[in-house]
Every structure is written in structure tokens, then in C-alpha cells.
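User: Just a sanity check before I run the rest of the batch. Below are the C-alpha cells for the first item. I only need the designed sequence back.
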């Protein structure tokens, strides 16, 4: 298998199409189409889209009740491993944090990871009327909404993007607003429905939100053309950011029912990670932020990549440990363990004892007369 950064050879004539597996929803097929076109360019091979039905597409109820994030992933991975497809495309936030044996993931460039409010008349989180009904299927979004607007009636909803938008913007709307991901609406060309892109200081996104995961059988990387294509598809700033975010989730052992937000980004040669753990009712939340300098690239491309990936993972673990030390497991359904595996988390840094100034300023503005909607 070629190292990351080495050049592959030209695909021989007569090579069969590259089969790309996807869920069947409009959003999944749209984002898979973007990846498929790019793979076609990079490999010179025809690409065939293979729709795989997952439990998440047929079961009803909350994500936690259906079995967590893996409900959207398992069927695609089975199709990949048994040879029904050669590549699988996931929303990265749907992937369990553990490494899947025999599979390799790369991450194309991330879309905007923020959440958005979709409401009539251009209303925002600030200007929604008191007692407004806001729909979301995410405990993370619900908790953070309640933190800044405890007066809101947050309603649990499910369904595809069009179904959710109709509940706030359709002729028979029964909600004042819904909260969705910017990335999904951007990929579906539905940003016209957005009334506010919510600042991450108000609502930290889910770990990996806005990013895609392109997954292949590790054995497929013996094909130098495919290995080169995946190397070109992988976007290092995205990879490092989501590694930090997902490492935090793994350390916290936070499932889909835990109100945990995480947002990492690259600033020059540093990764900055901010994470939030909240009570489901929004009455209390902890925030911690830290950064790490990325090591300079030395040695082979593979060794340099590994060193930078390790720095990102270490940052996620460090921020999670600080949150655990501050009592995050008391607020949310997490496993309360420290880095030594004990039931008591180690003492944390004083930096984790309060939210960032931006968050506190935003909360005070919204709670103390900042929201200008009428009562009712």
C-alpha cells in the first residue's frame, strides 16, 4: 500500500465502476453525489451509487430509543465489508467514535458546522416570542436552547429535512421554529429557510457536525489509484478538528442522548477546541476551551500525519478530562471516569470552572431583556 502523499498509477481500461454506498434519504444521496463526482475525477473510474436501507430509515422514535448513532451506520458498513459497495459515505456525526476493524475513514472538507434557526418573519433565538414552540430532535440543541431561553417550549421532533421545515414554515405549521444543521440545508440548497445562523457561543455543534466520512475497506488501499484519490479527498484541517471533537466524545463516553457540544478549528498551527456539557433542562452547563500546537512535519508523510493526528486526539482527551474533573458526569449521562480509569475524575484546571466570556455575555443579554418577542 502506498504511503499517504505518494502518487498512484493510472486506472487500467475496463476497470469496473466504483460502487459508492449511501442511505436513501434526499440529504444522504445529495451529499454522496458530491463525493461520487469527486472520486470519479480523482480515479478516472465510473461511479455507481448504491442505496442501502438502514434501521434509522425505517424505525421511529428518538435516536437514543433506536439504539444511538450507529443505527444509521451499521447497514452501510455491512454492505462495505461484504462487498456490495466499495465506498460508503456517512455524516461523520453518525459514526460511533470507536475504530471499526478492517475499515479506513477519510474526511473531505467540512461544511459550516453551526446550527441554524428556521422561523417565519426572520425571527431569531433572541426575538422569538416568549413561550414559542421550537422543534428539535437533539438533546444537545434542546439543552442549549433552554439555557439561553428557559421560557421556550422545546418540542421533540423527527423526520427528514422537508418534514421538519414544514412544521415551522408550512401552511399547517404547528411550531414557531425548528433548529437544523447549516450543512444539511446548504447541501440541499435550502438556505433560504434559515432565519438565523446560531453563534457557537450560544449553541456548540455536535462533534463532527458538517463533516462527511468516506469509508473504505482498508484492504482496498492496496489499489494505488484509490489510495491516492482518498489521500487527495482527505482535508487535513477538517480531519484534525473532528479528531479532537470525537476524541472528547470518546473520553466522555457520551452517547447521542448526552447534551454535549464540541467545536474545534485550526488557527495558524494550533488546534483550538471548545466543548460544552449541559443538563438536559438547560439549567446548568460547563464549558472548557484549550489549544495545542501542531508538531512540524518531519520524516515520512505518514509519520508527520500520525504526529498531528495524535496531537488532535490528545487535545480532545485533555478537554474531556477537565470537564469530568469539573463535574460533567453530574450534568449529563456520561461515564464518570478519570484518565486512570477510576470512578473519580482527577482534579481539573481552574480554567474549566466557568463558561467563556462570550457565552456568559450572550446568556445575560438573552435572559435580561435581550429577547424582544411578545409574551404568549
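Assistant: Here's the designed sequence for the first item:
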Amino acid at each position: 500500500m502506498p504511503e499517504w502523499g505518494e502518487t498512484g498509477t493510472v486506472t487500467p481500461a475496463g476497470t469496473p465502476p466504483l460502487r459508492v454506498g449511501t442511505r436513501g434519504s434526499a440529504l444522504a444521496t445529495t451529499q454522496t453525489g458530491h463525493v461520487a463526482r469527486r472520486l470519479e475525477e480523482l480515479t478516472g473510474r465510473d461511479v455507481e451509487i448504491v442505496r442501502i436501507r438502514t434501521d434509522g430509515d425505517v424505525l421511529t422514535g428518538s435516536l437514543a430509543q433506536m439504539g444511538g448513532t450507529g443505527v444509521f451506520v451499521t447497514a452501510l458498513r455491512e454492505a462495505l465489508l461484504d462487498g456490495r459497495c466499495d465506498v460508503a459515505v456517512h455524516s461523520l456525526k453518525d459514526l460511533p467514535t470507536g475504530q471499526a476493524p478492517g475499515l479506513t475513514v477519510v474526511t473531505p472538507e467540512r461544511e459550516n458546522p453551526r446550527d441554524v434557526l428556521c422561523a417565519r418573519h426572520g425571527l431569531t433565538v433572541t426575538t422569538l416570542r416568549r413561550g414559542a414552540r421550537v422543534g428539535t430532535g437533539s438533546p444537545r440543541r434542546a439543552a442549549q436552547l433552554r439555557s439561553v431561553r428557559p421560557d421556550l417550549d422545546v418540542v421533540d421532533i423527527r423526520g427528514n429535512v422537508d418534514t421538519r421545515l414544514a412544521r415551522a414554515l408550512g401552511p399547517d405549521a404547528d411550531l414557531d421554529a425548528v433548529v437544523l444543521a447549516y450543512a444539511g440545508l446548504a447541501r440541499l440548497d435550502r438556505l433560504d429557510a434559515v432565519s438565523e445562523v446560531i453563534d457557537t457561543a450560544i449553541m456548540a455543534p455536535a462533534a463532527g457536525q458538517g463533516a462527511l466520512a468516506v469509508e473504505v475497506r482498508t484492504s482496498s488501499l492496496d489499489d494505488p489509484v484509490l489510495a491516492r484519490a482518498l489521500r487527495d479527498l482527505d482535508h487535513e484541517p477538517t480531519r484534525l478538528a473532528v479528531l479532537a471533537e470525537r476524541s472528547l466524545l470518546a473520553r466522555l463516553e457520551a452517547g447521542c442522548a448526552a447534551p454535549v457540544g464540541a467545536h474545534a478549528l485550526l488557527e495558524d498551527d494550533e488546534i483550538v477546541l471548545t466543548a460544552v456539557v449541559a443538563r438536559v433542562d438547560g439549567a446548568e452547563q460547563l464549558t472548557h476551551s484549550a489549544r495545542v500546537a501542531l508538531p512540524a512535519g518531519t520524516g515520512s508523510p505518514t509519520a508527520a500525519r500520525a504526529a498531528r493526528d495524535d496531537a488532535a486526539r490528545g487535545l480532545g482527551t485533555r478537554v474531556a478530562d477537565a470537564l469530568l474533573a469539573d463535574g460533567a458526569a453530574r450534568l449529563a449521562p456520561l461515564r464518570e471516569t478519570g484518565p486512570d480509569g477510576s470512578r473519580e475524575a482527577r482534579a481539573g484546571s481552574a480554567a474549566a470552572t466557568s463558561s467563556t466570556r462570550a457565552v456568559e455575555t450572550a446568556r445575560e443579554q438573552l435572559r435580561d431583556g435581550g429577547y424582544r418577542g411578545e409574551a404568549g
